[in-house]
Amino acid sequence: MVELVNNRREFIKKSSLVGSGLMAGSAFFKEKSNKEELIILHTNDVHSHIHPFKNDHHRYPGNGGVIKRALLIESYRKQYKNVLLLDAGDIFQGTPFFNFYGGELEMKLMTKMGYDAATLGNHDFDGGINGLIKAKEFGEFDFINSNYIFENELTSIVKPFKIIKKGKLKIGILGIGIELEGLVDPKLCKGVIYTDPISNANKTARLLKEKYHCDYVICLSHLGLKYDSDKVSDLLLAEKSKNIDLIIGGHTHSFLDEPIKTLNSEGEQTLVSQAAWAGLRLGIVKVSFTKGLKTSDGMTSKV
Prior knowledge:
- This protein has helices spanning 8-17, 19-28, 66-79, 96-101, 104-113, 128-136, 197-211, 234-239; strands spanning 36-43, 83-87, 117-118, 142-144, 148-150, 158-159, 161-166, 169-176, 192-194, 216-221, 246-248, 260-263, 269-273, 281-290, 293-302.
- The chain is 26% helix and 26% strand.
- With 303 residues, the protein is an alpha/beta fold.
- The chain is built from eight helices and 15 strands.
- The chain has a single domain, classed as Purple Acid Phosphatase, chain A, domain 2.
- The strands form three sheets. A seven-stranded mixed β-sheet has the order 6-4-3-2-1-14-15, with helices on one face.
């Protein structure tokens, strides 16, 4: 396994790079004792980027990297008691780390950072079904998908939804995947059947809200933020959804400074967020619950 931090001096140097991100987060969110609050941290399309971009990179000099992300995550856990850490897919493929380790390294690092759940992106099938199962052996968090039917061994590692309790809050999490045809070699995703994302998202969200009485429902989506065509996207899903409070998206590598606030099919607010790609940003959504009412706001922080 790659040695990420060689000595104390290098660790201190890397730690200083995230100082501005930590201060920005502290200034943006201040916890109030009279509210039940939830912090949702999220990533997407990390694509096996373990190290930061090189300091002479033409667009992202010195940006990203697992160490800085881990420090930023830890800073929020120190400030708030109710913190979730989620990923919206395409964990794999993009650097030699995946080619060499087959996803093992990514799974170990996400486990170390304390991820609670992730959905599947198209590139997470690049090692085939067996490769995905083997990599997941090193990941101590759940894969969530609500619109794929699995006629293979993935039934043992992918759940249709997950419920997590944080303090007094019950959080429901579902996952939605993109149509794999045309994106993934059929041999690599054999036995994965795509079904309608909107109807399945609404069906699962209703279950989470009405049967399991979740206070907040999150959809981890790898559909993509929006398209010029009528292809299903996060914004279209939000418009046609019911019972979904937050959509955390991926696939289109969209740089959003803050979540998009839109209205669902019943005229209620749904947030749509996405945090760039390659680990360049960490999405942060804060939800405050007061006397049965909830308010949400958020941002993405540079890593």
